[in-house]
Amino acid sequence: MALPFLFGVHNHQPLGNFDHVIARLTEESYLPFLQAASENPHFRFSLHVSGILLRWWEDHYPKLFDLLGTLIDRGQIEPVCGGFFEPILVAIPRDDRKEQVLRHKDYLKRQFGRTPVGLWLTERVWEQSLVEDLVNLGIHYVVVDDRHFLVSGFEKEALYGYYYTEAEAQKLAVFPIDETLRYAIPFWPVERLAQYLQDVSFRGGELAIYFDDGEKFGAWPGTRKWVYEDGWLKRFLDALREWQEAGRIEILTFEEALKRVPAKGLAYLPTASYAEMEEWALPANRILELLELEKRLKPEKTRFAAFIRGGHWRNFFVKYPESNHLHKRMYLVSALSREKFSPEARLDLLAAQCNDAYWHGIFGGLYLPHLRQALWEKLLSAEAKLRAATKPEILAQDIDFDGKEEIFFASEKAVLVFKPSYGGQLVEWSSLSTCHNYQNVLTRRFEAYHESIKHPEEPPEVEEGVFSIHQLKKRPSEEVLKALCYDWYERHSLVEHFFDPSRGLEDFVRCDFGEWGDFANQPFHWHRTADELLFFRDGGLYPPGSERRPLLLRKRVKIRRAGRKLLLAYEFEYRAAEETRCFFGVEFNLYPLFLAQGQGGFRVDGKEFSVQEPLEGQVQKASFRGKGETLEIRLPEKARFFLFPVKTVSQSEAGFDLTVQGLSFMPFWPLTLKPGMRHQLELALELKP
User: Which of these is catalytic: 27, 58, 95, 213?
Assistant: First the structure.
C-alpha cells in the first residue's frame, strides 16, 4: 500500500525587512522552488505564505504572484492560512487573533479563489485555548511538531498519522510534523531519504508528514548550491514521480489527507513549541545547564528527549524587558482601538503584532533594530490615529505587568513612560508626529551562545548532504570578540550615575566606570503635582573602602508642549560627614531618527560629529537630527560628555552579528560634596520639527 506523503512549505519575511533582502530571498529560494514545482505537475503540496510576504510579492514580484495563482488553480498547491501579519496567536488579544486569521483567509479567497481550512501555527507555539477560536473561524486542522505529542507521552511510532483534539466541545485535527523529515529535507541525499520513507511504510506508518521553512530551499547557508546547482531538488522531484508511479508513496495535500485518511484517535497537547524554541526561551545560564544535561545523557539523549524541556515562549517577555514593554504597549493600543474604532488604526495595530522582533533564537529577531523599529512605527501610527485631538493625561498603572506602577503620559503629540521602581528611568519617549520611539535601545546581555564565541569549536565534517542551519559551527571575528561586554542596568534614559573621577571613556563603553551611587537602577519614591513629576530616593554613595555616605537625590520632570519638551531639575542633599569628590552624570540611551532613517546626524554646539566610534568632549547643546524631527538636549553651561554606539553581539543564520542598538550619551560634571551641602542642576530636552 502506498504511503501518503504530505509535503508543506512555510514562507515568511518579517515586517520591516529590507526590500533588497526579500528580493534576494525571492530570487534565491521562493521563485526557483515554485518554478521547479510548475515543471513537475505530479508534485502537490500545501503552502503557507504570510500576508506580509504575499502583499510584498503582489507589489514587487507580480510574476511570482501569478505563478502562485496558476499552481493553486491547477490543484498543485493547497493554500494554508495563519495570522495575516504572522503573530504568535496565543500572545495577542482574542479579538485580534480572530481578525488576523480572518484577514488571511479572506485575502487568499479574494486573490486565489480558495478558502483555506488549514492553519500554519506561527513558530508552532501551541496552547489548548486556541481550539475553540480556530474551529469557530472555519479551521479544520493545524500542524505542530511531533514533539508536542512526545512530551505528552506519545510514542514516536504512533505519530505517523494525525489526531483530533478538543476544547469546549469543539474538535480540531492536529498533524504532527516528523522531526526526522524536518532535519532531512533538503539536507540528506535523496537515496537516504528514500530509505527513511520506506522504513516508515514498513513500520505501518499511515502518513509521512513534512512542513517547514521554504528558506531551506536556497536561502540557508550552503543550500542554494546544494538544492539547485548540485541538483538536489531535481533529484527529489524525479524520485517522487518514480516512487508514486511504483506505488510506494501517494502525494497528498493536508486537506486531502484529512478527508481520506482516518484519524488515529484523540490527543491533548501541552503548551509547547519546537525544542529549539523552548531552549531559546530559557534564561542564558539555564540554557547552558540544559546543554550540559543533554551532553551527560549521551548516548541516551534520544531516549529521554521527550522528558527534557526548556521554557515557555511567553518567557521571552521575561528574558527581554524591551520585548515585554513593546508587547504590553500593544495591549494598551489594542484596547484603545476597540474604544475608538478606526479601520486604519486597526490595520496598523495588527501589523505591530508580527512575531519576529518579540524574541530571539538562531535568527536576529529582537536584536535587529530595523525590525523593532517597524513594529514601533506601526504601533505608534495606530496610536496617533486613535489619540488625535485628545487632551494630555497622566496615569499611574502597571503597564508591564511586573506588579509595580509605571507613570504613563499620553497626548496627541507624544507618549512617555517612566519607571519609578527602576531608577525613575524614562523607558519610552515616543513622538506621535514621526511615529518614533527614541528609547528603542536594546541592553547588552549575556547570551548562551556567547560561550561558543569565547571558546569556538572546530566545525565537524559533513559526510553527505549539507548541514542544517542548527548544526553549523560559526567562527567569530576579532571585532566580535572585543565587543563582548554586558550592561548591569537596562539602557533607558534619565539614568543617574555618581562615579569614580579616575575612569574614562573606555570604562564607560564597557559599563565598568566605577559606580559609587545606588540610584541608577534602584527604586525611587514619586508623586505628582499638575504636570510635574517628582522622583526622590534617600540613597547613598559608596567610594571604595568607605562606609555608605547618605545622599538624597530629587529628580523633577516638568512635561511641556504635550510631551515634546521635558525640563529636568536635580537636587542633591549630601548628609555624610566626609567630603566626597566624584563625577555626576545623566545618561541617555537613545535610538535617534537618523539611525532608523539613515538621514541626519549628531551635533555638539552646532558642529557635526560621527557616532561610529566612542567620542568625548565638551557640550552645552547636543542635537540628534533626523528627517522631520530633532531631539535636542540643552545644558545650563558646558559639561564634559561621553558618547558611544551601543553594540550587541548576536547570532544569525550566517554567523555572529555586531549590531548598533542605539547611542549612549552622558553629560557629566565634577562634584565636590561637603557635609550638609545642597546642589542643583538643570537640563532641558525637546523634540523639534
Answer: 213
